[in-house]
Write a structure and sequence with these properties.
single chain
């Protein structure tokens, strides 16, 4: 039976596609695959840059806070075009982990050790006690394990970056990650005026106030904002103490991965890596910074890139913040965030007073 014209056309197209070289087909597929990511990635990077610029005009606001607020406002006030979805999902994970790796270039092992055993003990206690207490209290409140692990990591170590670091090990859902990031940025921002005021109320000098700020405040940017209101000495000490807490990211994430790996071994499912690749690269970056081989110009560039990557990732996470989901989770997560903040603030305050 003769074929009609449309059928001939379809068969001809199919034949041409099948006879095309494999390399051409792969190239076309790869280009299409990449083009699916680009709109969302470009959007997140652009908003990340805008957030950094806005933070310079609003020094009390962290660029991470601005970025996640912009994302959350867009998600809840207007529809987000589907063309951005793939790139936004990529940014929320891959760009964030790249930013964490570059964060290691801010850490010199020598500067951390120079804090002395007393301050290092404050750092270890602040991270360890806050993490464990947050996980335990969260369990008593009936919060799911992934959610309370994310909050524990963010509030005890280094804010949103630690939440991202814990995401891979916990297998948390996107809305749980967004909730933890939103809470840690919110409560950390409240710490900006609170910690300097508390230091003044207790009569602490600049150095001790810097210890208090660095050992308790959640985000690095928030530490800079709080320390800068006290003075140059307090700022320097606060940032160094905070970076010592950031250095705890690697051992805590490794321990968390080991725990979750054993848990999955019992319950089934995919086991997380004992030492995630980005954590290993974070340690390598820290060692490179310790050697002093990188010029200051390279370190400044790395800091700028790291800030943009983290802000871009925060915007991507903000786009995953559905207010209905947060409301549905109830006030328990907010209570846990508040209690976690109080715990780390108490530990840091006692430590700073003893240090003084």
């Amino acid at each position: 039976m003769a074929l009609d014209e449309p059928q001939r056309t379809n068969m001809s197209a199919t034949s041409a596609a099948s006879s095309a070289p494999a390399s051409t087909q792969l190239k076309t597929s790869g280009t299409t695959h990449l083009s699916g990511y680009l709109p969302g990635i470009i959007l997140c990077l652009a908003v990340g840059g805008i957030s950094l610029a806005a933070a310079k005009l609003l020094p009390a606001m962290s660029p991470l806070l601005i970025a996640i607020l912009l994302g959350a406002l867009w998600r809840n006030l207007a529809p987000v075009p589907a063309v951005f979805d793939t790139g936004v999902a990529f940014s929320a994970k891959k760009l964030l982990r790249a930013g964490i790796v570059l964060l290691g270039l801010q850490l010199s092992l020598g500067s951390v050790l120079a804090l002395g055993p007393g301050v290092l003990a404050i750092v270890v206690l602040s991270v360890g006690v806050t993490f464990l207490c947050t996980v335990w209290i969260g369990g008593r409140l009936g919060i799911e394990l992934p959610q309370r692990l994310l909050i524990a990591a963010g509030f005890s170590i280094c804010g949103a970056a630690a939440v991202a670091g814990a995401e891979g090990a916990t297998g948390a859902k996107q809305n749980q990650v967004a909730t933890a990031v939103g809470l840690v940025v919110l409560f950390g921002t409240l710490m900006i005026p609170l910690t300097p005021a508390l230091g003044a109320l207790l009569g602490l000098d600049e150095t001790s106030t810097g210890v208090l700020i660095g050992a308790s405040t959640h985000e690095v940017a928030q530490v800079v904002a709080a320390g800068g209101t006290v003075g140059a000495t307090a700022l320097g000490v606060a940032v160094t103490v905070k970076l010592a807490r950031v250095a705890m990211l690697a051992p805590v994430m490794a321990g968390l991965s080991l725990y979750m790996s054993r848990k999955h071994k019992v319950e089934g499912g995919k086991k997380p890596a004992i030492l995630p690749l980005f954590v290993a690269l974070f340690l390598i970056a820290m060692m490179i910074r310790t050697t002093g081989v990188l010029p200051e110009s390279v370190l400044q560039l790395a800091t700028t890139v790291q800030s943009i990557l983290l802000a871009a990732a925060m915007f991507a996470l903000g786009l995953g913040v559905h207010l209905k989901s947060i409301v549905k989770s109830g006030g328990r997560t907010v209570v846990l965030a508040l209690l976690s903040t109080i715990i780390i603030l108490l530990i840091a305050t006692v430590g700073a007073c003893l240090y003084a």
